[in-house]
Task: structure prediction
Amino acid sequence: MRHIFISFLLLLIIVIIFIPWAMMRGLPGPTAPDPPAPPEEREEPAAPPPADVRQLTIEVAMSGSGRVEAMPLEEYLVGVVAAEMPASFHPEALKAQAVLARTYAVSRLRKLGGSGTAAGADADISDDPDYDQAWIGADKMRDRWGWLSYWSHRRRIEEAVSTTEGVVVTYEGEPIEAVYHSTSGGRTEDALSVWGGEHPYLTSVESPHEDHSPYNLTRHRFTWAELAGLLGLDDGALRALAADQQQQALRVTERTDTGRVSQVHIAGESYCALEIRRRLDLPSTWWEPEKDSEGVTLTARGFGHGVGMSQYGADGMAQRGYSFREIIAHYYPDTSLQSLTDLDKSGE
Result:
């Protein structure tokens, strides 16, 4: 009986193991992949578009270290927008700033036929706002915004850059001279009045939505002695003129069509408004003097040269429902928005 039981058990094991194995051997296996097509029958991938913005790099001269750093163009733009515009501005204003920053950079990008930087470095552009656009890296962003706000502010700027990827402003098919400033004071200036060069799209336009700017109206007080020191004039002579006839101590002799100061006489010396702005560290050239026996108070409107887009004006427009496209169209009349991939600046 015991032998019969063992034989039955062995037979059962064989049935359980062998039969399923034999059945599996008869089942079809996974389908083999089709053999690759002969070389002449393969479909070639589409060629990448010219000037692929994600592949473009820009060489930036760092004013602090004197080094030249190469970085992706779109990554560079994040640093420009962070440096040039408050991160708290409306997303549409940030987008407008990103497009203008890209346009300015492309006009300097030597591999696309641009001019390079005027800073004297062997680079496309400088981070020095005296020559080009300002730029800051992650460390300075954290210093400016703090650790708690860094990620949220950076994310807003990165979104403004990415959603406008490759978009530039053009006039007659060429990137414009994409200048901009903080606050116009209510009306932008014509480029011809500031730099002497005429650009049809850099004309004066109304900019009414700037009341929230801290630079809308500012007052700057100078004693006659302080004014003489800043301008290199004889202190006694200037104070004597002020005591005798204040009109001769300081007199605006010429203004632009928008009302900004163009020429001024101080103690018989003639100065252009740009020099006065630099020497007195004024926010703009749009000011009115109030003179008395002790000195002069200059009430200034706006901040910057006043040409192109007003950043606070753009933010004001965005808060009222205007898109970045409408903002750019307002500040740069007769221009178009165009994809960078459609521009052939290589000269090839």
Q: What stands out?
A: The radius of gyration is 33 Å. The chain is about 40% helix and 20% strand.
